[in-house]
Write a structure and sequence with these properties.
heterodimer; A: globular; B: alpha+beta; Arc Repressor Mutant, subunit A; two-stranded antiparallel ribbon
């Protein structure tokens, strides 16, 4: 059996293979298009609750654990949690802005957490463009220095870039930068509303022409490590893995079907993740929805199904159901 | 020392999980994924628990109602494959 077949089994069999933890919404940068609702509040999960969650997830066969935020390294117990997750054999991914990951902290990350990959956000190929997004002067130069130090330590690093109206003129330079420093670059073209419903970030969505140009650029760079999140859906029984092979947990213990599908399926202050996974009506309805969507898409023409879209954004009203 | 009496442990960069009746092993440093069948996954889990091959054979014989002689041969072969693939390493004697 192949890895893809195993993933299919996880999606079709409702096995939470990948879980994303938004540890904190604190951040040392201030990205304009950040989707976090920083006015949202609640009682943070304690270290003991996270440890209990990890044990439950291990029993549920979760393999990938992504630490996200905000900036996950801003969580006061990040290293305690990371080390615990490592001890329980999770494949750990860290989504970071890289601002604090200088040599000392990067070494600590490697030694104590040993992540499979650190995903770092790159917003431009120049300080002016990158820092227009981060709203922190000096963050571009500091990021390049930190990337160099992470690579020297042997950390596996991937760059993530979202195409925006602000950086679309630099897409070639950003790809060239990634190649020059020998890091894979993953493009995303989807800007989403903030979790509080604020649609302001959509004002800087990339133009259709820029998205088309990026496709051309990636075609030219086929075979390099520059890729885009627009692949057609795999032949699963569900359109995506939301609430089927994955979950997202926010800092207050709210459990969501995925990072985009912000409809709470339960809260870890009141129930454990196994009960939520097995009994939540929200998760059950999401699985029904994505199963129906997979069947609908399968019945459409190849032209209509060649491009991926996010059903959560359709469902929550923030996107366009352009392919259906 | 005969290979059968050695103890092994998972290499530090190895992660694994059982997904339904199959298993997945990731070698982090190489970025390589192995997909194992149910028995293979069980062997990895028992190695991770610290069992040496004879103990693994005894456990599998009980769990799968299989012939211990045949299992001993299969486990020895599989352990050698895991070792060659960099999934396990010989545990240092104390």
């Amino acid at each position: 059996m192949s890895y893809q077949a195993l993933l299919t089994k996880a999606v079709n069999g409702n096995i939470p293979f990948s879980v994303l933890l938004e540890l904190t919404y604190r951040c040392n940068l201030d990205c304009y298009y950040c989707y976090n609702d920083r006015t949202n509040g609640g009682r943070s999960l304690s270290v003991a609750q996270y440890v209990s969650l990890f044990a439950d997830l291990r029993e549920l066969a979760t393999m990938n654990l992504t630490f996200s935020g905000g900036e996950p390294l801003a969580h006061p117990h990040f290293f305690t949690l990371g080390a615990r997750a490592r001890a329980l054999g999770f494949v750990i991914r860290v989504k970071s802005n890289g601002h604090r990951l200088n040599g000392r902290l990067a070494r600590r990350l490697l030694n104590e957490v040993d992540p499979f990959v650190v995903e770092i956000s790159l917003h431009g190929a120049s300080a002016a463009t990158h820092e227009r997004q981060t709203q922190v002067a000096g963050s571009f130069g500091r990021l390049l220095t930190n990337l160099e130090q992470m690579q020297a330590l042997g950390l596996r690093v991937q760059l993530n870039s979202t195409l925006t109206a602000w950086n679309e003129t630099e897409m070639e330079a950003m790809s060239a930068l990634a190649e020059r420093i020998a890091l894979p670059l993953r493009w995303n073209v989807q800007i989403t509303p903030r979790d509080n419903g604020d649609r302001a970030p959509l004002d800087i969505a990339a133009s259709p022409q820029a998205i088309s140009r990026l496709r051309g650029l990636l075609e030219q760079r086929r075979g390099t490590e520059t890729t885009i999140d627009l692949d057609p859906p795999p032949p699963w029984g569900k359109y995506c893995g939301a609430g089927a092979s994955g979950l997202t947990v926010d800092p207050w213990g709210n459990v969501y079907p995925c990072v985009q599908w912000r409809v709470p399926a339960g809260n870890l202050h009141r129930e454990n993740v196994r009960d939520i996974w097995e009994r939540s009506p929200v998760l059950q309805s999401v699985r029904v929805r994505t199963e129906a969507l997979a069947a609908t898409v399968k019945a459409r023409t190849a032209e209509a199904t060649k491009e991926w879209f996010c059903p959560a954004l359709v469902e929550t009203g923030g996107g366009e159901e352009r392919l259906l | 020392m005969p290979a059968n009496s050695l103890s092994f442990r998972l290499c530090a960069d190895v992660r694994y999980r059982q997904i339904a009746d199959e298993g997945i092993v990731l070698r982090q440093q190489a970025g390589e994924v192995l997909v194992l069948n149910e028995v293979g996954t069980r062997v990895v889990a028992l190695l991770d628990e610290g069992l040496a091959p004879p103990g693994i054979v005894a456990r599998l014989a009980a769990e799968f109602d299989a012939d211990p002689g045949r299992l001993a041969i299969d486990v020895a072969g599989f352990v050698a494959e895991l070792r060659a693939a960099g999934v396990i390493e010989e545990e240092a004697c104390s």
